Amino acid sequence: MAERKPMKVGVYIPGNIVEKLTEIMKEIGVESLSRVVQESIRLYIAEHSWRTRGEVVGAIGVLYDHEAGDVDGELTDIQHKFLHAVVATTHVHLDERNCMLIVVVRGAADSVKDLVSNIEKVKGVKLVRLMLMAKP
What we know:
The protein is α+β, with helices and mostly antiparallel strands. The protein has helices at about 15-30, 35-50, 70-80, 110-120; strands at about 55-65, 85-95, 100-110, 125-135.
C-alpha cells in the first residue's frame, strides 16, 4: 500500500495513559509521540485485520491444567483436525499441573477462528491468547 499525504487527527487520551506512555518513552529513548501513535495503529491493523480477511500467520498460546480430564489428548486431537493450518507446536511444563502450548498457524482466517474456538471449549483450558496477523 503506497503511503499517502499525512493527515492530522485529534484524539482524546486519558491523563493516566499519557503519563505512563511518557514514562515508557523516556525509559526507552523515544522522542516522537507521532511515531508511537503511528506504530500503535500499524500494530492494531496487523493484529486485527486477520479477523476480516484471507490468510493469517501467527501463534496461539494456550495455558491449561493438564490434570483436568484428558485435556492433552483433546488438544492433540484438535490439532490433528486442523493439520492444514497447524505448522508447529511447542509444549512447556510450567509446574506439576500447568502447561503452556504454543501452536504456530498459517492458513485461512476462518479455519484458524474455528481452531481457536475448538481449543477454547476444552475443559481444563484456562487461557487462550492470540498473536495473529493478516498474511502480508
